[in-house]
Amino acid sequence: MRRIAVALAALCVVLAGCAVGNPPPADPAEVARRSYSDGGPAQITLFTVRGVGKDNGAHTALLVNGSERVLWDPAGSFRHPQVPEVGDLLHGITPLIERIYIDYHVRPDFYIVRQDKAVSRETADTLIAAMKAHGAAGQATCALATSGILRQAGLDVGRSWFPNSLMRDFGALPGVTEARIDVSTVDTNHNVIFGRGGVPLPPGA
């Protein structure tokens, strides 16, 4: 039993993407001020961070474009002064913030599998509501929490502790498109990440 517990705890700890404490909840006024919607079609995007070479799943996150554009980053380590967080739900996810989030995770030893799926606005907003209701996820439960939230919105994925298993189930859903993002296709940590030798975005970015 101890070996199983240690293995599960190691799923996301490798990247420290799924094993960090949460900051205090952002002020509701700041959340409202930073709220962002691009006005485009509803869509969800599953990000799976994987190790180069072994392809082990290191972290799971879910971007939802509904009535607002938010990022569910369960037990994630990403922080930015212009991205208010409440219980693992990041608000104000503009296209630039999305790129910075990707840049933060992609490095020589990790890459991202990005899977996009068009959904109804109702499904997107159901997911957002489920994320808000869930609250902060426990350490090393990124895939477990995310798969549970997807199932609440009627998406046919299995409940799993493992990012790779969720990635495969999500990829089997109708209409999903997939892309690999690695160091050959993204700038990595070049002074755009606050707190990692970078600088904050200008106001209003």
Secondary-structure element pattern, one letter each? HHEEEEEHEHHHE
User: What are the low-pLDDT stretches, counting only 5+ consecutive residues below 50?
Assistant: 1-16, 193-205
Give the number of helices: 6
What structural class should be given to the helix and strand makeup?
Answer: alpha+beta
Mean pLDDT: 85
Helicity range: 25-40%
Shape: globular
Strand percentage, roughly? 15-25%
Strand order of the largest sheet: 4-5-3-2-1-6-7
What composes the largest sheet? 7 strands, antiparallel
Distance between the termini: 48 Å
Number of strands: 7
Q: Compute the gyration radius: what is it? A: 16 Å
Fill in the keyword field for this structure.
disordered N terminus, 205 residues, 31% helix, 7 strands, seven-stranded antiparallel beta sheet, globular, disordered C terminus, 20% strand
Mind explaining what this structure looks like?
- The protein is α+β, with helices and mostly antiparallel strands.
- The chain has six helices and seven strands; from the N terminus they run ααβββββαβαααβ.
- A seven-stranded antiparallel β-sheet has the order 4-5-3-2-1-6-7.
- Helix 4 crosses helix 5.
- It is globular, with a radius of gyration of 16 Å.
Task: Describe how the helices and strands are arranged.
Elements: H1 2-13, H2 28-34, E1 43-51, E2 57-65, E3 69-72, E4 85-86, E5 89-90, H3 95-105, E6 110-118, H4 121-134, H5 142-152, H6 163-171, E7 177-181
Antiparallel strand pairs: 1-2, 1-6, 2-3, 3-5, 4-5, 6-7
Helix pairs in contact: 4-5
